[in-house]
Design brief:
This is Transposase (putative) YhgA-like domain-containing protein. With 292 residues, the protein is an alpha/beta fold. 52% of the residues lie in helices and 13% in strands. It is globular and about 80 Å long.
Length: 292
């Protein structure tokens, strides 16, 4: 039976497929940053009774023009039958798509991670026909993120850190950092990753800590303080874009932007800031529409 933590770990990759590249970069693994990531069908069943389905399958395209498939599997415990299934996935996908596959196995405990990281061979000992080398992420190499500002810079990675280190003595600090970081994003995103975290923690002790944090902190997303901080953040983004593009911003316009509390209006200004040549163009269309 598929566990909630199993589901959550691969759903993180579906919410933000790029998190794997950032994690690999942290670990100095030789994978280039993607320029495009596509979810692929996970059903590998052929015209026979046995159903074979991977957790998540991504196609990664890089700037150099190379591509590879990323097979994401969450593994909660040692299972001696699993390596043969993994070998099938790799061989089947190579044959089906002609794109090199990489097997990524996610683990929550060190014992399972050490087991999954071993090379698995297919064939007799004197002449192994195939050697499977999974890439493993687990408590041994996923960073422990206890700094709220670091968590805010990469919430999917912080969520992965919280789930992977659920049994770590630092789990309460990791969860607190993530809870604080979720206050910096919109309510929908926060709720998605809050739910993924709870699912991923399963029934470990840290799950109760997370529920307590959320019972207090989720009220933040409905508060006036939350709205004000989101407006301030959006206004800062607008000014940063204009400054970076060399658009002159008079003090009166700067004040208008920073004192605006209408998130919808700020979103319009943010979009226009990417292309306008003067600050007059930032507001004109909106004012014309309002008059109409």
């Amino acid at each position: 039976m598929v566990s909630s933590s199993h589901e959550a770990m691969h759903h993180i990759y579906q919410e933000d497929p790029g998190v794997f590249a950032r994690t690999f970069r942290t670990l100095d693994l030789p994978f280039p940053d993607p320029v495009a990531v596509s979810l692929m069908p996970t059903d590998l069943t052929e015209l026979r009774p046995t159903e074979r389905r991977v957790d998540t399958l991504l196609k990664i395209d890089t700037a150099s023009g190379d591509s590879h498939l990323l097979i994401v599997e969450a593994q909660g415990k040692k299972d001696q039958r699993k390596p043969s299934s993994w070998a099938y996935y790799v061989a089947h996908l190579q044959e089906k798509y002609g794109v090199p596959p990489v097997l990524l196995v996610m683990c929550q405990d060190l014992g399972t991670a050490a087991w999954a990281a071993k090379p698995f061979t297919v064939g007799p000992p004197q002449w192994p026909t195939l050697t499977l080398r999974p890439l493993v992420l687990g408590p041994h190499n996923v960073p422990i993120i206890t700094d709220p500002s670091a968590a805010a810079r990469d919430i999917p990675l912080a969520t992965l850190s919280a789930i992977t280190h659920a049994k770590n003595p630092n789990a309460p600090a990791i969860l607190k950092a993530l809870a604080v970081a979720l206050k910096t994003v919109d309510e929908e995103t926060a709720r998605i990753f809050a739910e993924l975290t709870e699912l991923g923690l399963g029934d470990v002790l840290a799950a109760e800590t997370w529920r307590q944090l959320m019972s207090v902190d989720l009220s933040f997303f409905r508060s006036e303080t939350s709205q004000r901080l989101r407006a301030e953040s959006r206004a800062e983004d607008i000014l940063l874009i204009l400054d970076t593009r060399g658009v002159e911003v008079p003090e009166s316009v700067r004040d208008r932007i920073t004192t605006c509390t209408d998130l919808d209006e700020l979103r319009v200004w943010l979009t226009r800031a990417l292309t306008v040549d003067s600050v007059d163009d930032l507001f004109t269309e909106a004012e014309t529409e309002a008059e109409a």
